[in-house]
Write a structure and sequence with these properties.
Blueprint lengths: L19 H4 L8 H13 L3 H6 L17 E14 L2 E12 L2 E14 L9 E8 L4
Antiparallel strand pairs: 1-2, 2-3, 3-4
Amino acid sequence: MKEKAIECPCGGGSYALCCGRYHSGAETAPTALALMRSRYSAYVMDKGAYLQATWHRSSRPPEPVAAEAGLKWLGLEVRKHQAEGDSATVEFVARYKIDGRAQRLHEISRFVRESETGTENRPCWFYVDGSFPEK
């Protein structure tokens, strides 16, 4: 009997062929957009160690991010992706429910691509921070 493919939380198709390959460490995200989508999926799947590993060292929290009790992620909409050299921004809206109430997170995330210790000097994308546009 064929095993059913798990859909990726980011909406990119099969989890194994989408964000799963980044979460497993088999590959690094080739673009800031791919990294942002994989980080959204990591939030959905409570992969705090992945979130911490893909956070830039200048803004990385000291401990892995833990899932918030009662929070359920509902979907991701990418609005804009701009890359210039080793810097990029991704604007997105993530929908979620917490304690039964629907919410939206609208963020413009900043990313940089650089080498970091332990990556065999391969340049990797990292999340730096985000801003939240006015409503």
